[in-house]
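Fig. S4 source data, part A: sequence.
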Amino acid sequence: MRFWGSRMPIHPLIKVSRILLPALLLLLGAATASSAQDAPGRVLGGSPNSPVRIDVFSDFQCAACRELFLNTIKPILKEYAGRDKVCVVYHEYPIAGHTLGLTAAHYCEAASRLGLPRLLAVMESVFLEQATWARTGNLEASVAKALPPAEFARLQQIMRDPSVGAAVNRHTQHALQRKINSTPTLIIRAQGKEERVSGYIPYPVMKQFLGRFVK
């Protein structure tokens, strides 16, 4: 099911909530039982044993992915993942032709090797400055803003490691195997079932949904 991407108009939040929350609950209620498979992905927060798991397939050059991370995923990490109520797993899926999105995925793979706080800082900076680096092509400057100079120098060294590109490629191949055809796509698992939702979901809608499973 698709909620909306970056090209669709934003409806008033109350109206959106009334439409999207029942649809999300209906989808999960009708979903078939499934278990999380071992797959490439970065845990941004929460425990693998959390009651809810959200896998996000994302492209740094995608406007709707930017809105999802900054306005929905960050609050989930703060309010739920820190209490191990929700596990958030990110998968890199740069769309074909998004060359800067692919480079950003490489930067974040490298940043993940510096630790989770550095990874989150780089992801936030890249998404915040998406319009700027998409226009100028200077993605490196946006990444550098997220790290102390010494850490950025380490990141540049890691970027030269061939295993960085190989790791991003594993993310992409996993997305293709799961037949992900748009970004952002979320695969939500709860109570032994899973369902996928494509497009941007506002945090208030997601919060109401999560409230059915965790307190």
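Fig. S4 source data, part B ends here. The longest strand covers residues 52-58.
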